[in-house]
Amino acid sequence: MIDYIVDGDGVATITWNMTDRSMNVLNEGSIAAFKDAVGKAIADKTVKGVIVASAKPDFVAGADLITLFKDTSAKAVFDFSMDLHKLFRTIEKAGKPFVAAIPGTALGGGYEICLTCHRRIVADNPKALIGLPEVTIGLLPGAGGTQRLPRLIGVRNALPMLLEGRKVDPKTALGMGMVDEVVPPADLLKRAKEWILAATPADSQKPWDQKGYRMKDAAMTPAGAQTFTAGNAMLRAKTFGNYPAAQHIMSCVYEGSLVDIDTAIRIEARYFTACATSDAARNMIRSLFISVGEANKLANRPKGVPTQAYSKIGILGAGMMGAGIAFAASSAGLNVVLLDSTQEAADKGKAYSTGLLDKRVAAKKLKPEARDAQLALITPTTDYALLKGCELVIEAVFEDRAIKADVTKKAEAQLAASAIFASNTSTLPITGLAEASARPANFIGLHFFSPVDKMPLVEIIRGKQTSDETLARAMDFVKKIRKTPIVVNDSRGFYTSRVFATYVNEGLTLLSEGVNPALIENAGKMAGMPVGPLALADEVSLELMHRVRQQTKKDLGAAYKADGSEPVLTNMVEKLARIGKKAGKGFYDYPTDGKKRLWSGLAQAFPQKPEAEQPDVQDVIKRLVYIQSVETARCLEEKVVIDVRDADVGSIMGWGFPPFRGGTVSNIDTVGVKPFVAECDALAQKHGTRFTPPKLLRDMATEGKRFYAA
Ligand code: NAI
Fold this sequence. Notes:
The chain is an alpha/beta fold. Among the domains are: 2-277, 2-enoyl-CoA Hydratase, Chain A, domain 1; 312-492, Rossmann fold (3-Layer(aba) Sandwich), CATH 3.40.50.720. Helices cover 49% and strands 11% of the residues. It is built from 29 helices and 19 strands. It has an eight-stranded mixed β-sheet, with helices on both faces. Strand 15 (443-448) and strand 16 form a beta hairpin.
């Protein structure tokens, strides 16, 4: 796990080498072995200095969050943090030079080891990422990162790294002072050894252990005062206090900048404990780290189906979605036949990839040869015969049953019997679309999100006749193109569109009740959603929502339940001709020369209640959040979603449900099933049956159950 050798020149090398894992990580075993090796090197009088290295392409990727906190009591977390601090201080004060030889990525606890060493030398590896991303899973760097980074590079530079969890490449890290040298990969260990052999006693002392050390931009300096004041205000505006880790990082850096390092790391350990035991961290670690990891490993893949290798796929429709999928598939090295009804449209679809790749070349993130090789994989065409040999065809033509049926038949005529046919429809039930297919067992939904190159989620929809084998092979495809799959059963709006719509509709309903639109939008953002429901409606397009609504009404007949959002939508689209952002006017105005503004005519179109009768913002937040969770519970009850982890992952990655809430299901656990049911009953009484909790939740409340074990 940790190799230890001392060479003839008295240079010890401690090498991280966790052979049973793809990456080196900090866990109970590796920390103990590292501590052991450090102890040996310090005790051995013949050892002049120590290289901390890695036998893998990367250094250490961070802490193993799955096993690290077996005991999540505050005392256990605090003790864990203080133990690491003691070890790291031992290195800093060993009186021997320690140098981190960093071949690749060093993140979180991995980079904190580097910060502890007296020098950091990193290989010129363009794939390497360096940083402290803990905040993105609700934690703070708990092994000295909040104290050593500001001491090394100053508060002003360190705060954005810590608060945004930014990861930078070696050259950027060098520019910021986060590392000391960038060297060719082959010279890494040689350079580290040279440094040790030339090191003076001052080299093995940290600046902050030297007399008269002053931290740059510390709290009581004029620059520090300005940074902390502005930083706090910005943080508040961005997070609305929903992310305790960010607030705790601020406090750590502020308080830590006023004291010596040994006091500072105790302060950090205290705040780390507060973070690690918070609901936000538990939710974010569970959903963003553990559940996403399991989804990426295809935890729900039907067993016993051999893995499908992909080399060639077809895409029908080279519009916005088809072009994006072609980019994703070619990025994974697949040949793509991109078909549209005219050559011009097909070429335009390919040009989308050219544009994205050109940008990467211009930013020096990609070599021109690599761009050309990827573009050569995409064949734009109108000729169905080119689909021969495709293992999978994804249809992304207009949202029209007849057109979809037509292209399905034409494509299938060219395909081998085993090939899969997938539809990227966003609203049409898969089982119905499969009626056009000669082999409905091989027919499936692959619902991508826009823009495809940025959105990591794919919602896989099983039709009634979709086989296990098709599902398994479709999951292999999603993995191949490095996206995260969730699996759902066929239903109107599937899972993501169905639940997402409840957020938007609740916003429109609030408007219909006379609630101030600014209050609605702020409540959405304060709830932790990326944008308010009215802005989101504009982005989706009010016209599209209206069209889908009319179709749903027609399909459901008497079973259709109207809510307050319907007249708002009809009014906006049919009477006011304000159809959304694309047209430059919806709930907002979109001036070409400035920021969007709520439309000044809203108050007249939807008369507002007097100020004294406006609801409390917390009540509005509750409605906007709870409606999504209660609809998710219905999806679980109806078996539209089978795995609660998929529901959580899909809600965060699909439509930006607040990560600190852990997803729509974790949110119910965080509130507590019983109180959640009681609050929904109260909401239902006041606002309508859409809040009525389904039987599944009532039963769980009665039996004292929760969705996740803890
Ligand atoms: P789009 O209008 O940008 O592209 C559709 C493309 O299909 C056009 O290039 C059109 O020329 C082509 N096409 C139409 N009829 C054809 C035919 N008979 N043969 C070959 N090509 C034909 O539409 P977009 O937005 O890319 O949507 C495509 C599909 O993806 C729809 O089913 C939509 O519901 C679904 N979808 C859309 C999302 C979005 O955010 N726009 C998100 C997820 C799914």
